[in-house]
Task: inverse folding
C-alpha cells in the first residue's frame, strides 16, 4: 500500500495537485488560527525549504541550538503535514494529527507550507492576522530534478526523469502547477510583512541573507552569531544533523510502506544548476521555453 499513490485531488481554482487526504483537512487549514507573531515560510517543494526553515527557526528562537535538536518536522512543521500520508503513519510520526497540535506550540511558531496562496488559512489571506511571511523561490529546473529524486524515494515513482519532467511542466506533480503557485506568492511580495528570498541568494551569500532575515524578524545578530549560524546551515553540517536530514523519518516511511527512501539522501548535493547532471539539453530547452512563456509580460524577475 502506497500512501501517495492513493490518488490526487485538484484543489482550488488553479487546480493544485494534492494528495487525496487534502479533502479531510481543507476546512481545518482554511480555519487555522494564525498568530501575529507566527513566522510563515511559503514555497514550493524542493526549493530549499528545510534549509530556510532551519535558518528562520533559529533566528526567531534566539539561536537556541539546544532546542534545535528536536526534529524539524515537529519543531517548525509543514502546515499541511496531515495530508501527506494516511492517518496511521501520521499517528506514528507526528503523534497524532498535527494541525490541531499546532495550537499548543509556544510562540513564535515557525510554520512552512507548500500550498498555493489561495489555499492558505483565511486569516493570512484576508490580512486579519499579520504574521511575518518569507517567500522562497528556486529555479524550476533544479526544483524539478530534486522533486523527481524525492518522488522516487518517498512515493515509489518508477518513471524516467524525462517522463517526470513532462508531468512537472504540465502541473501534474504534487503542488503543481508550478507557475500558478509561484505567481500566487509573487503577488504578495509588496506587503510590509512579506520578505522574498531565493535559493540562489542563499547559496551565493548566506551571511547576507541571514542578516536580511534577522532584520526582518527584528532579531539582530552579531557578526560572530551570523558566522556560527552560517556554519550550522552549511550543507555538510546539515547532512550530519539528524534533526534536519530526515533520515529517521525516511526509515519509518520505508518500514511502513516498503519504499526505498532510506537509500536516498534528503539533503543531496544542493547546487544551483545541478540539473545538468540529469536533464538533457532538449528538456532544458523545453523548460527555458516554458519559463519564457510564463514570465513574459509579467514583472517576475527572479530567474
Ligand atoms: P537538491 O535535491 O537539489 O540537492 P526542500 O527542503 O524544500 O525539500 O528542498 C530540498 C533541497 O534543498 C535539496 O536540493 C537539498 O539538497 C537542498 N538543501 C538542503 N539543505 C541544504 C543546505 N544546507 N545547503 C544547500 N542546499 C540544501
Result:
Amino acid at each position: 500500500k502506497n500512501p501517495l499513490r492513493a490518488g490526487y485531488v485538484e484543489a482550488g481554482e488553479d487546480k493544485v495537485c494534492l494528495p487525496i487526504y487534502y479533502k479531510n483537512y481543507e476546512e481545518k487549514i482554511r480555519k487555522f488560527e494564525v498568530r501575529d507573531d507566527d513566522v510563515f515560510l511559503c514555497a514550493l517543494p524542493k526549493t530549499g525549504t528545510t534549509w530556510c526553515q532551519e535558518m528562520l527557526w533559529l533566528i526567531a528562537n534566539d539561536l537556541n541550538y539546544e532546542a534545535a535538536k528536536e526534529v524539524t518536522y515537529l519543531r517548525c512543521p509543514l502546515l499541511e503535514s496531515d495530508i501527506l500520508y494516511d492517518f496511521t503513519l501520521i499517528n506514528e510520526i507526528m503523534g497524532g494529527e498535527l494541525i490541531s497540535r499546532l495550537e499548543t506550540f509556544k510562540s513564535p511558531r515557525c510554520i512552512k507550507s507548500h500550498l498555493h496562496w489561495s489555499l492558505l488559512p483565511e486569516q493570512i489571506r484576508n490580512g486579519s492576522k499579520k504574521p511575518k511571511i518569507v517567500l522562497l523561490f528556486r529555479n524550476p529546473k533544479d526544483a524539478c530534478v530534486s522533486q523527481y529524486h524525492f518522488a522516487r524515494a518517498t512515493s515509489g515513482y518508477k518513471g524516467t526523469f524525462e517522463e517526470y519532467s513532462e508531468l512537472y511542466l504540465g502541473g501534474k506533480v504534487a503542488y503543481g502547477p508550478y507557475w500558478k503557485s509561484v505567481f500566487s506568492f509573487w503577488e504578495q511580495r509588496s506587503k510590509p510583512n512579506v520578505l522574498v528570498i531565493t535559493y540562489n541568494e542563499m547559496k551565493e551569500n548566506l551571511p547576507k541573507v541571514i542578516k536580511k532575515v534577522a532584520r526582518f524578524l527584528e532579531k539582530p545578530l552579531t557578526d560572530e552569531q551570523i558566522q556560527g549560524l552560517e556554519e550550522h546551515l552549511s550543507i555538510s553540517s546539515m547532512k550530519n544533523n539528524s534533526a534536519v536530514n530526515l533520515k529517521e523519518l525516511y526509515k519509518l516511511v520505508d518500514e511502513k510502506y516498503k519504499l526505498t527512501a532510506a537509500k536516498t539522501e534528503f539533503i543531496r548535493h544542493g547546487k544551483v544548476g545541478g540539473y545538468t547532471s540529469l536533464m538533457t539539453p532538449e528538456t532544458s530547452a523545453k523548460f527555458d521555453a516554458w519559463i519564457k512563456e510564463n514570465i513574459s509580460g509579467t514583472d517576475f524577475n527572479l530567474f
The radius of gyration is 18 Å. DSSP finds 15 helices and six strands in the chain. The longest helix spans residues 140-155. The longest strand covers residues 132-137.
